[in-house]
Amino acid sequence: MSTHRGSTTCFNWSWADGNTTATIYYHNTCSTTKHLCVWWKDGQENNMHRVTAAGDAKGHLKEPGTIKSQDIEDC
Question: Could you state, in order of their start, the residue ranges of all structural domains in the chain?
Fold first, then answer.
C-alpha cells in the first residue's frame, strides 16, 4: 500500500491504495469555496466525483474502486 500526495491551485490532497475502496483527504487552501474533481475507476467504469469545499475546509471522500491520480484537478 502506498500513499499518494499532490496539489492543485487551491487543494492539497492525499490518498492511499486500498483493496476495494479508496479515500481521498483534501484541504482547500484558498479563502473561497472551490471544487475538486476526482476520477475513480471501479471495474470497467470511470466515475467523476466533484468535491465542494469552503475556504480552508478539510475533508475526505470514500468511494469503491481506485483513484486515477493523473485525473485529480480543480473544476
Answer: 3-36+48-66
Provide the pLDDT for residue 33.
98
The whole-model pTM stands at 0.88
Which cell goes with 65?
474502486
Q: How many CB atoms lie within 10 A of CB 17?
A: 12
pLDDT at residue 42, rounded to an integer: 87
The phi and psi torsions of 65 (rounded to 5 degrees) equal 100, -160
Distance CA 37, CA 35 (A): 7
pLDDT at position 29 over 90: yes
The one-letter code for the residue type at 12 is: N
